[in-house]
Amino acid sequence: SHIRHAWDPTKSVAQNLAEMGLADDPNKAVPVPRKKLLGMEVESDGRKQGKKIVRKPYVVNEMEYEASLPEKKSNTLSRDLIDYVRYMIQNHGENYKASTGYEKNYYQDTPKQIKRKINVYKNFYPEEYKDFIASLKQEKMDVQ
């Protein structure tokens, strides 16, 4: 969005990017160092970069600021997966083999896949998992 707001439609792409302090060609922006290939010396492109005038430095500054902000953790599971895992735990508990032949297992998950999904649920929502297990134990006690 910063680039879009600073863009001048009357200028070329290279001119717009140069004014913002951005490179239009990464091969020219980062020079290739001298290398030795099979005993022969190969030099990088001999063009010298003149000093560029950056007229819109705020674009790069704003982009750097945005990049330095910490990312929001958006680790969530789908409601369907949560319901699936809770259903499997509720009906089969730790018996993953018994849960494979069940009608809710419409993806035909193997016992290891079901176990992995349950472990992912445990890791994403540890408090909710503990409360769920506690409610299951309470239900069992009420039934007996």
UniProtKB/TrEMBL annotation:
BP GO terms, sorted: ribosomal large subunit biogenesis
Gene that specifies this protein: Nop16
Keywords noted in UniProt: Nucleus
Protein name from the UniProt record: Nucleolar protein 16
Recorded family membership: Belongs to the NOP16 family.
One Pfam family this sequence matches: Nop16
Compartments, as annotated in UniProt: Nucleus, Nucleolus
InterPro entries referenced in this protein's UniProt entry, alphabetically: Ribosome_biogenesis_Nop16
Any one Gene Ontology cellular component term annotated for this protein: nucleolus
KW Nucleus (keyword) present: yes
The keyword RNA-binding is annotated on this UniProt entry: no
